[in-house]
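Let us practice reading a record.
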Amino acid sequence: MTNKNTFKILIEFLMLTVGSIIAAFAIEEFLVPNTILDGGIIGIGIMINNLTKLPLSMLTIILNIPFLLFGLHKLGKIFIIKSAYCMTIFSLFVSIFAPLTNATAETFLAVCYGGVILGVGVGIIIRFGGCLDGTEAVAIILNRKLGLAVGQMVLIMNLVIYSIAGILFGPDRAMYSLLTYFITSKVLDVVENGVNQAKAATIITNDSKEISDKIYQKLGRTVTIMEGEGLVSGKKVVLYCVLTRFEVRELTNIINSVDTSAFVSITDVSEIIGNHIKKTLEN
């Protein structure tokens, strides 16, 4: 491993650490004290914590383990290692922040500031190739197998969780939690430089066969292959594929492992019309 790659990995894990600490601060100092739920596994953990007083740090790890094991062979070791690392750091700092004085007892302030800070933390984690919640991993796998939008599946899962919260803690807690979710989502998008769920990658390379094969094998995405010609560089092969924002980091790793001189352009896709052929991942 070169010094450049080692430095890159260290920076990634440093930023994953920062994102996890920020998210833990938002959860423990703003949301938990005011019975406001995050989505996904963490939201379920907050509900169990309120009902049983079991530590949220312990619940986060225990509840996420099945999802990490489920995604191990589907999402790749690097993604799972980063996600497990984020969850561990998050759990550690949740327990560190727990004894501290809560940031505010005003519910509306907790919703606004907690949602913004949580969005920053989760946005950093996603940007550097990690994941803090097992439901996101499941959503990505279902996206690859069934073609369902990641954002829509996460929203449906969270609506179920918030509905349960409404029954257990009252409808106002559910509405506050849903508002926090939308604030977090918007801030997360800002941190991610406005990325949408769908992204389009245009790759100009001399190693089109190997790159397209790896994209198909690792991401389950087919690639459109076109011929191009550069003004100076001459004839080139242009690859085009559509993927989710969660897969951009893995795509970058694939390209860098094959052709470090490739030219890559990533753009937002606001709408997809027609069927996009994808590999059916094996069970």
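A brief commentary: Strands lie at 198-205, 224-230, 234-244, 263-268.
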